[in-house]
Write a structure and sequence with these properties.
GO biological process, one term: DNA-templated transcription
Number of helices: 10
CATH topology of the largest domain: D-Maltodextrin-Binding Protein, domain 2
Number of domains: 3
Pfam families: HTH_1, LysR_substrate
Keywords: DNA-binding, Signal, Transcription, Transcription regulation
Organism: Cronobacter muytjensii
Structural class: alpha/beta
Number of strands: 14
Protein name: LysR family transcriptional regulator
Strand content: 15-25%
Shape: elongated
Largest sheet: 5 strands, mixed
Length: 298
């Protein structure tokens, strides 16, 4: 039977890049780390690491074991925390990632409240416009927006939100938009991470379907909604942005919604997490907490 402590030591060595750095991270001596790795290799009958004076290199067997060890250790942590949670509340570390904009508007405040409710839980949050590799980055849950792509991960729907075309009053004075045709020929600011940023199926007046296509090359392309909002506020053109992001700018008159009789497809907020055999209580707890908070439930 594989020893989880030795597996954890092996993962620490791989991630630290050396026995010395792994020993420091684990609070152990270099000799203890070396013994654990030798015993693990002896148990398996394979060489896991090729050692040189400058670096360590994984063998093919070592690479396979490293990837499987990440999942095994995560399952073990989840099982331990699930058993302990019924008596002690959530503990350990919760690693969450999402986009910078949704982090500042929704996820950040929710994590703060969740952390206050579970003082034994350590929270680590990092934001990025690029989807994270949940396994290699050891992410517990990623909050993703839009249309969920097929993946090997599990997902839970948190909420849906409206997206709308917006522009500054200054831009609209120069480029009045009164029809879909005029909107299609506008100076568009597009999101580069959308699967199909130029073509949309809309719902028009009386719920009639309508097709919409941007016919001119985009004036500006960016990989974040925050950047697109900045360009829109500066009068660069039309951006398709979520209502939760632009609500304040609309209320202040800094941005204007275009053609409100036409509705773009609603988008989803999803909690995405690894397809583990044991989903930890802290992950399930945070997903339920975030869903209730977004819905306005106590």
């Amino acid at each position: 039977m594989l020893n989880l402590t030795r597996l954890a030591t092996f993962v620490a060595v791989v991630e630290a890049g050396s026995f010395t750095a792994a020993a420091a991270a684990l609070g152990q001596t270099k000799a203890v780390v070396s013994v654990n790795i030798r015993q693990l290799e002896a148990e398996l009958g394979v060489t896991l690491l090729l050692r040189s004076t400058r670096r360590l290199t994984l063998t093919d067997a070592g690479e396979r074991l490293y990837q499987r060890s990440l999942a095994l250790l995560k399952d073990a942590d989840a099982l331990r925390e699930e058993v302990q949670a019924s008596h002690q509340g959530f503990s350990g570390e919760l690693r969450v990632t999402t986009t910078p904009e949704y982090a500042s508007h929704v996820v950040g405040p929710a994590l703060a409240a969740f952390s206050r409710a579970h003082p034994a839980l350590r929270v680590r949050h990092f934001s990025s416009s690029q989807p994270a590799d949940l396994i290699s980055q050891r992410v517990d849950v990623a909050i993703r927006l839009g249309t969920l792509q097929d993946s090997a991960y599990r997902a839970a729907l948190i909420a849906r939100f409206t997206i709308m075309p917006v522009a500054s009053p200054a831009w609209l004075q120069r480029h009045p938009v009164s029809s879909l045709e005029a909107l299609s020929e506008a100076d568009w600011l597009v999101h580069t991470r959308l699967a199909s940023p130029l073509r949309w199926e809309l719902t028009g007046p009386d719920n009639a379907p309508a097709r919409f296509e941007i016919t001119r090359p985009p004036a500006i392309a960016a990989d974040s909604a925050g950047a697109l909002m900045t360009f829109a506020l500066e009068g660069c053109g039309v951006a398709l942005l979520p209502e939760w992001l632009v609500a304040d700018a609309l209320a202040r008159g800094h941005l204007m919604r275009l053609l409100p009789a036409y509705r773009f497809p609603a988008q989803g907020v999803y909690a995405v997490y690894p397809d583990a055999r044991h989903v930890s209580g802290k992950v399930r707890g945070f997903i339920d907490f975030l869903r209730a908070r977004v819905a306005g439930e106590p």
